[in-house]
Write a structure and sequence with these properties.
With 372 residues, the chain is α/β, with parallel strands linked by helices. The protein folds into 3 domains: 25-133, Beta Barrel (Elongation Factor Tu (Ef-tu), domain 3); 146-276, Nucleotide-binding domain of ferredoxin-NADP reductase (FNR) module (Rossmann fold, 3-Layer(aba) Sandwich), CATH 3.40.50; 290-370, Roll (Ubiquitin-like (UB roll)), CATH 3.10.20.30. It contains 8 helices and 19 strands. It has helices spanning 4-17, 19-26, 112-119, 155-168, 189-198, 229-235, 249-261, 310-316, and strands spanning 29-38, 43-50, 64-69, 77-82, 92-97, 126-133, 146-151, 174-180, 203-208, 222-223, 242-247, 269-273, 290-294, 299-303, 334-339, 342-344, 356-358, 362-364, 368-370. The chain has a 6-stranded antiparallel sheet. The protein is globular. Mean pLDDT is 86; it is low at 1-19 and 280-285. The structure holds FE2/S2 (inorganic) cluster. Residues 323-326, 328-333, 350, 358, 360-361 line the site of FE2/S2 (inorganic) cluster.
Length: 372
Amino acid sequence: MADAESRRGSLENSRHSDCETRDVRHNFNSYRVERIVDESFEVKSFYLKRADGRLVENYLPGQHLMFKIPTGADGMTLRVYTLSDIYNSETYRTSVKKEGPPIENPTLPAGEASNYLHNTLAVGDIIEARGPLGDFTFDWASKRPTTLIAGGIGITPILAILKGILRDRPNQHIHLFLAFKTTRHQIFKNEIDHILKQHPQIICHLFFDEMSESELSHSPNSHARRIDLDVIARILPDLQQSFYICGALPMMTSLVDRLKDAGISDQDIHTEVFRHSHEVETQPIDTRHYEIHFTHTGKTILWTGEHKNLLEFAKSHGIPLTAGCMTGSCGACSIEVEDGEVEYTHTTAHKPKDGHCLACSCKPKSEMRINA
Ligand code: FES
């Protein structure tokens, strides 16, 4: 078996030197649905093979695919879903939660893309996806002990990262904290139990915030409460850990703020936020006006503040920009800012490289020149 360094080396090389690999990652390819597995009443796993019979591209645990889903006003929506398992050359596994209307506003529509995958996509169907992409991956250079924390469907990259670490370092000590509403919402239970049996050094605690102590009395290391840093700090030997956290925004915000207050540096806090698509669409209308020059298409358009972000603005004027999650998590909408400034409408999980911005999550703060 190749060791971790050579495996990562070959993946990095494949990223930078092989044109075909780059095309696979950055162009859309067709995948055939091989198998669909119910993980719970609201989560399904989709096993995908390349439709052209080739092997699937290698990836780092924690990365995702961006799918073209035939739904939405334009007849096509881009959505990002995490690969929930480690690499095998034959298939990708992605696990998707069926997104209902937001709890705080049940009159808003349910997530069309996830509902399409759950209700319409069938074994044998073809679906297009690009990637794998994403930078919520394990930092192999870190010497700190590892703590993995997941809330709900946030378990998908955390499970892949856990399995990725154990594939290369089977004896690594890891603390694993998993939070769900109830045991009915718990997913990958058998897979996690199997891992714990194979790797007894891993310490796993489960949190169920809609259950009582009596309902969990026969489940060791299970807690009838919301996960927070107080309980995590009581379980960990100390907080000098490398944290990988994935879940919904409220859980993430509270944990990350508390970890920073406790003196944990940014480089030891790795996060991926899973947002409901409605969560980022509540910004007030901004009435400032700026000229925006799209240098590639040669268009100059006046920003009048009626759009929620640069991506929506560009799209409404016929300038197509690539996008995925629409929440600032995947980096797909990153565009080069040649001149000018933006302001973000919310904190993004993905940090664009210097001189770029995430069009789905920002608005102009001045006149701008954008390479699009
Ligand atoms: S579309 Fe994913 S970060 Fe903008």
